[in-house]
Design a protein that fits this description.
- With 699 residues, the chain is mainly alpha-helical.
- Among the domains are: 2-147, no CATH class; 401-689, Orthogonal Bundle (Farnesyl Diphosphate Synthase).
- 51% of the residues lie in helices and 8% in strands.
- The strands form five sheets. A three-stranded antiparallel β-sheet has the order 1-7-6, with no helix packed on it. A two-stranded antiparallel ribbon has the order 2-3. The protein has a two-stranded antiparallel sheet with strand order 4-9.
- α4 (223-235) runs antiparallel to α5 (243-256) and α9 runs antiparallel to α10 (366-400).
Length: 699
């Protein structure tokens, strides 16, 4: 009790004064409490001086509150932020607390047992800058957030596992249930007024430095081990940190390579071929002829070399049109190892397969140990950044208001962001991911407008408006289209301006042209299905490549990444038309391959298979699907050829990698199961955005 009184006096909480006329004072009382331990034994006697706020009366002073009582939502937000940023929550005892703001003057009777004998009729005037927390009992604890300092402090074998608890993915909505802007704010540790770089970041930077030094040095046991290091870096999806070093290693190998490749095993030569071709080095598939017998087929003894066959199968995935030897290699090795390699590296999203590779990664010493630790930390870093971006996209989508205006359209920001997250894995490309997601959003929304909201005549007006790109036309559009049209112009113009600020030119004309072409293709499809007319399979596919929206995505991506500027004008947007066509064909055919429709689409959609079977009445669904699989394989070959051509200019490598990642994402986005769900996509999102234990909930 004396401690409490001394603290009040030291902080000059009140002064004794005469009660002014017309002012009512409030009473106070001592509150006593016993604190017990886990066994029920009393270990502390506590007391507090509290004001009798309950004497207030309705209609007089009942609404005057002297204590900001925390709402339950505030506590929930606090816990959500701490979980998201992987903070620890610390509890501190509070001996005394004050409000640091102005209130009206408060007068209180002198506290029992400590009345002034000389001035017993005076009351206590509470200081305007030292008002205690009255009306209710003072809180005895204060929750503090502290950033987790060490990777090893986490519970799951040293892996930090932050969760964005304010989000949930459902296969019906792929939407974000709740997100707070607080989650997007950066944080730092502050102690005694000083900011410190946390230990995790310093350890992370050190491991990056260690791997970079190993790549530059010649300490590796042999040439092949340096290739194995590069391969591991790529499979663990940390290669964007070491692009220059990897390029130097591969160039050295390319310059030192001989035509005979004496001493190279099947594994070594396959690895050499795959890595160099991926990075744009000109290397012929004929180097594999050394493993053929006199009969012109791969030697039978190779079937015992499982490790070599697995790498040969991986290398064969980089086949281009006319490379029969790689087709033969894929068939020969696939008979033995295709079951073990269901997801070849070249056709997979590295970030999706990285966790499995970490689990299977052998080696506890040297660069393997360092690289494995770095990969685990990198997953945490990337996940945190992606969660913050997802919160920003959620806020942008909410503020846009289209979900409320177009209630039948898809509301799937989580799914839209996943495209960008998968295509651009480099954490430094946050701005590009956000802007690309906005463009992808409008592809889906405009698609739904053409499917669900307009007659052919109204859609024709909308298409013309997009070509004109004029705000004055908004009033001519049907109501459901007005908000979408204005938002499209606002967003695209803003993207163009941001590209101008970053790269020195505004590609708005190319962006407008891409949107106009997309609406043209949507309009063609709308007229086909409104008339009940099915086009030929060729007509359908050529138009479907455009209506897939791939060209809109890749044109935006081309300029967001500054390819034109980085290559010194050597690569123009027209140079990527063949690449766009290949990715678009892969997406369109995969989309049509399954019979299931997207969960929220109530409009009419045709398919390539439907058009083909109408042209060929005697064909069966099985034979048509086999035909589609062959077409997808052929388009992959053409895509690889275009990527290898563009990769000869290393400044375009980020664009070709992103383009490949979009093609790699297609099976995840369109592999529906019998329940019309997307289990592989759910697994990918859970793996990359949420904790492994966080499952996608089905309602």
């Amino acid at each position: 009790m004396k401690f409490e009184i001394n603290s009040i006096h030291e902080n000059k909480v009140w002064t004794l004064v005469d009660l002014p006329g017309g002012i009512k004072h409030i009473g106070c009382k001592w509150v006593y409490k016993k604190k017990v331990d886990v066994d029920g034994n009393i270990h502390t006697y506590k007391l507090r001086l509290v004001a009798k706020g309950y004497t207030q009366r309705q209609g007089v002073d009942f609404d005057e509150t002297f204590l900001p009582v925390p709402m339950l939502k505030s506590i929930q937000i606090l816990i959500a932020i701490s979980t998201y940023h992987d903070y620890e929550i610390w509890q501190m005892d509070v001996k005394i607390a004050f409000r640091n703001e102005n209130l009206q003057e408060v007068y209180m009777t002198q506290h029992e047992g400590f009345e002034s004998k000389e001035a017993s009729k005076l009351v206590e005037k509470v200081s305007n800058r030292r008002q205690p927390l009255i009306q209710q009992q003072k809180p005895s604890t204060l929750l503090l957030l502290k950033q987790r300092r060490k990777l090893s402090e986490s519970r799951n074998n040293g892996v930090i596992r932050p969760s964005l608890v304010a989000c949930r993915a459902t296969p019906q909505k792929w939407t974000i249930l709740e997100a707070t802007s607080e989650l997007t704010k950066p944080h730092q540790i502050i102690l005694n007024g000083q900011s410190f770089k946390d230990e995790f970041s310093m350890e992370y930077e050190q491991k990056l430095k260690d791997i970079r030094e190993i790549l530059k040095s010649e300490e590796l046991e042999n040439q092949i081990e340096s290739l194995m290091l590069v391969d591991a870096i790529q499979r663990l999806d940390v290669n964007y940190h070491f692009q220059e070093e990897i390029e130097a290693v591969l160039r050295r190998h390319y310059m030192e390579a001989t035509t005979s490749f004496d001493g190279y095993t099947l594994h070594d030569l396959s690895l050499f071929f795959r890595l160099l071709r991926e990075h744009g080095f000109s290397i012929s598939a004929d180097i594999f002829n050394k493993f053929k017998g006199k009969d012109g087929v791969f030697e039978g003894k190779l079937k015992q070399d499982i490790r070599g066959l697995m790498e040969l199968y991986e290398a064969a995935q980089l086949v281009t049109e006319g490379e029969d030897i790689l087709d033969e290699a894929a068939k020969f090795s696939g008979q033995i190892v295709s079951g073990r390699l269901k997801h070849p590296y070249h056709r997979s999203i590295a970030r999706f397969t990285a966790k499995k590779y970490i689990r299977d990664f052998q080696g506890i010493n040297g660069w393997r140990k360092t690289l494995k630790e770095l990969a685990k930390m990198n997953i945490s870093v990337a996940k945190t950044g992606n969660q913050q971006e997802l919160a920003k996209i959620s806020e942008w989508w909410k503020n846009l208001g289209l979900a409320q205006e177009l209630k039948q359209a898809r509301n799937q920001p989580l799914k839209w962001y996943t495209w960008s997250m998968a295509s651009l894995s480099d954490p430094s490309m946050s701005e590009q991911r956000l802007e690309l997601t906005k463009s992808i959003t409008f592809i889906y929304i405009i698609d739904d407008i053409f499917d669900l909201y307009g007659t052919p005549e109204e859609l024709t007006v909308f298409t013309r408006a997009v070509h004109m790109w004029d705000y004055a036309i908004v009033q001519m559009l049907p109501k459901p289209m007005k908000m979408c049209y204005k938002a499209l112009l606002d967003t695209t113009n803003d993207i163009g301006y941001k590209i101008y600020k970053k790269h020195g030119y505004n590609p708005i004309d190319s962006l407008k042209s891409a949107w106009g072409s997309l609406c043209d293709a949507f309009l063609v499809e709308a007229k086909w299905f409104a008339s009940g007319h099915l086009p030929t399979s060729h007509e359908y596919l050529e138009n479907g490549k455009v209506s897939s929206g791939v060209h809109v995505v890749l044109v935006h991506l081309f300029f967001l990444l500054g390819v034109n500027r980085k290559t010194g004008g050597a690569v123009q947007v027209d140079d990527i038309s063949e690449l766009i066509s290949s990715v678009a064909a892969i997406l369109r055919l995969w989309d049509d391959f399954g019979s299931a429709k997207d969960e929220q689409q109530d409009g009419n959609d045709g398919s390539y298979i439907e058009c083909y079977m109408k042209e060929n009445p005697g064909s069966t669904i099985e034979t048509v699907r086999e035909c589609v699989i062959d077409m997808i394989s052929s388009d992959w070959k053409h895509l690889d050829k275009e990527c290898f051509r563009l990769n000869k200019n290393s400044s375009s490598s980020s664009f070709t990698k992103a383009s490949l990642n979009i093609a790699r994402m297609v099976p995840l986005m369109y592999s529906y199961d019998d329940n019309h769900q997307l289990p592989i996509l759910e697994e990918f999102i859970n793996s990359t955005l949420f904790d492994d234990t966080f499952l996608v909930h089905r309602p």
